[in-house]
Amino acid sequence: MRLAKRSMLLLVLGCVSLWAGAQTIAIGGIHPLTGGLAADGIQMDNAIQMAIDEINEAGGVLGGTPLSFLSADSTGSAEVGQTEAERLINEGANAIICCFQSSVTTNVATIAEREEVPLVIDVAVMDAILDQGFTYTFRLQPNATAMGVNGANYLKELAEASGEAVDSVVVLFEGTSGFGDSVREAFVAEASELGIVVLDEIGYEPFAVTDLTTEMTKINALRPDVLVVTGYYNDGLLAARNAEDVLLDVKAVFGVAQGTYDQAQFVADAGDLAECFLDSNYHHDASNADALAVLARYESVYGEPMRTSAVFSYQAVYVIADAIERAGSADPPAIRDALAETNFDDFLLPHPGPIVFDETGENVNARPVLMQVQNGSIVQVWPPELAEADPLFPCVSWNR
Amino acid sequence: MTLLGRIPRDYLILIGLVLALLTLPSFLNQFQLSIAILILYWALLGAAWNLMGGYAGQFSFGHAAFYGIGAYTSTMLLTELGLSPWLGMLAGAGLAALFGIAMGYLTFRYGLKGPYFALATFAFAELLRLISSELKFINTSIGIHLPLTGGDSWQRLQFEDNPQNYFYAITILFFVGYLIKISLVHSKLGYYLQAIREDEDAAAALGVNLMRYKVTAVAISGGLTAIGGSFFAQYFFFISPELVFGVPISIDILLGPIIGGTGTIWGPLVGALFVTPLGELTRAFIRTPPGFLSFIEGRSGLDVMLFGAILIVVILFMPNGLVGLGKQLWARVKR
Amino acid sequence: MKRSILKPTHRNWLILALIILVAIVILALRWEQTVFWLSRYGIVLRQATVTGLLIGGVYGLVAMGLTLIFGVLGIINFAHGSLMTVGMYLTFVLFTRYGVDPYLSVLITVPVLFGIGLVVQRFIIHPARNAPEHNQLLLTLGLALFIQNFLLVLFTATPRSIRLAYGRGETPIGPFMIDFPLRIWGTTITLPKLAAFVFALALAGGLYLLLQRTDLGKAIRAVAQDRDGAALVGIDTQRINMITFGLGTACVGAAAALVLPFFFVDPLAGDTFNITAFVTVVLGGMGSIPGAMLGGLIIGLTQELGVVLAPSSIKLLGVFIVFILVLLFRPQGLLGVKS
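Predict the joint structure of the above. Result:
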């Protein structure tokens, strides 16, 4: 009798899961699709759609369930990000990918925790997001500390390998939106540790800066060995042009999590000037054929080069799909448990090991890679195991 | 009846409204509730702005200054001293009021009016944003995360398990804010302010102390705005100079009262009821447009375009705000 | 009650003079350090001055449009920067699609933006002429949102920039061959910035002459001074309103084409210039055309000198401090008339 009851229950459960199998599993995405950061946000949104389409073409997950995409625009504000997160969960999102901005992420993570829906952060750099003891939140991208610490070490190693001394640097950083400042802080701390003197830290306002010639002249007067830059695309482009204008007398311009010098668009916009610029940043693995195929697909569909941020959103979909397969269920807490056990080998990122999350949700193998513009393309130059070419150092395009 | 008759009608409306609001959490789902929270929050901020911009006629384009002071004061007191945000809120309101007195004294002493005053308030807010981006003890532009303590606590104003408590909290603040606003409007100060707005010189000639009343209006308006800032910090768990002192805050604060109707008691609430869901609605419209418009689906930017267009249309056709329009229609119906 | 001997304005100037005096004394007392600092950073000071003036010319041009509109229509136009972005995209499309040189495209952007200005005034600003002042402000805000996101839909958010084929190395300027960028006393002057500065000043001069010498200009000034009086003597004030708004936006049409060679364009690019333009307009005196240009130069200088004087600080900070000081001590602006 009891056995019969139990098998009835199993039957019902089986039917329910079959019925659910006809449904889709929804992945929510929250990114800034309007406002000052829309260039990245729109690409990240596209990339999620692209990954979901690919998975569905290949037969979906759990033996045939298609994924669906619930897209949301945070508009770059915490208020909207929050209501959108709640809307997505209300509409049945089984997992969420977000946010690009640290300011929006914290709040969405709190909601994910409360509603017990797993959240995979594709991009959001601030360390403190995961200091809150969240159990439902996981981050793919290296955090600010990883960016700054690795950046400083790459610089040091690069100098040692080339036999050129790098004793002093000046840091030029965007100083109002939080991103540049948090990377600067981590970089300066590690650089001092490594015995590199930081002569000055020059901040600028990224959304109001019209020219950096005076800053570049000041940097010339300070005579550092290397100029370290951290900020967004537009200001990075200005910095590059103005550095050339004053014939900046440094051994290299070295970006740390800089949004310009590792973008294909930089080469298109700046031409020969772009040569030799270095950037230690989160990135796709350019020595990985699969990653290059994804980039090519993106460009053929959306007509512009794929940004790194979008690669991380794309990757996040696959990490979630993997977790769903292992969970054997689309139940959000089950996906969370599977995410916590993630050991994802088939990744597109330049990390030394598989995607594995520690107990705070940080991707333990996340780290940046050093890239350089060489002969019109972006190549990985450091660390040596990921290098596609030898780094050119010292080198600036206006002194060649 | 006689007793009730003596109490201005607005108090009764407020009490009825708050009682009705308290029943809302049983009807609404979490998404709807969070929009309701935002509406009350913007209504509170709008009411604060309205005291200065609407009643006293001193148009502020920099209310982010007060808002940010509130957010940072309560947050610093919480993270450094463990002080309850309720007390932090009061401290923030006090500081913001002091800042308002200083700013008001300076600007009014030199006779700034109209667009000059508006730009001065804008400059003060921007100044605070840039300075706070440099201050080490508030973690520069990186911002501060509020520590999550887990669980629910009224004392710490943090509700992880039962977010509807945030709704009750903002309802309390809304009630207090409107209570202050209504009593002010019906006080001598309120009449003086309106006299100043209508004709400053005439008011001065009648012996109204312009400086004193204008500065008082700025201080009270600033204090109430700071409370909204503290609530933001507690509700969103993260503040940074760009978030709380930024220009978008100053703009968002004044949207509600102007759309709803400046210089009216309920204008800011009506405006918030209109503006807050409008963004949601335009986004939903672009996400799932009607069949014949399917080509616009998901085009980012179209929603904000639509928002801007609606804003223009509303202002063109309702120069006195929604409350003004309502009064006009009511007058026509009565005739 | 005993009155102070000094009038308030005199007292303000005295305070200002005192501050400057104290600064000089401090510098003199620390003479050796000052000399050392100058020997090391003198070049930065010179570059800051040069850059400040060059970029200030563009700020001035943008601010002239704003101040003209304010002077006649009495509104602060928050859509000014977004209209500039329209001009920047126009320049960009003309350059990449049709190979039109950005400096030549001024001939196209100015009339197009003038036309847009006419339309905006007629259909958005004019209907609200009797509404409270703040309604017009919000209208321009709504318009700015609309334009920014219209451009976002049209061009996406990806920033675009252009590269001139000339401007580095030997460049023919009239009969002379000049080696750009110019290096004068250690400072760097690039061709796009020099060109922007020169054209901005020329256009400012042209606009000034237009206002001073032509009948149209006289009519505009008459309306700015006394709307009712102007209407009485037979001036069509609404026509003047439209034309003024058109002229104001034409200014950003020109500025847009001039900055693109050394800047970039994305849907928010023009707003970068609008923040400083507000400050500039107040500094110069709202409604004063020469004041706007002077204000632009001063703001440019303040912003750049801030880089030198305030170590590791954000340069906008100095601009706002100057702004508040001006508001307090000389609210009518440097060249404005006291109302």
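Chain C is about 70% helix and 5% strand.
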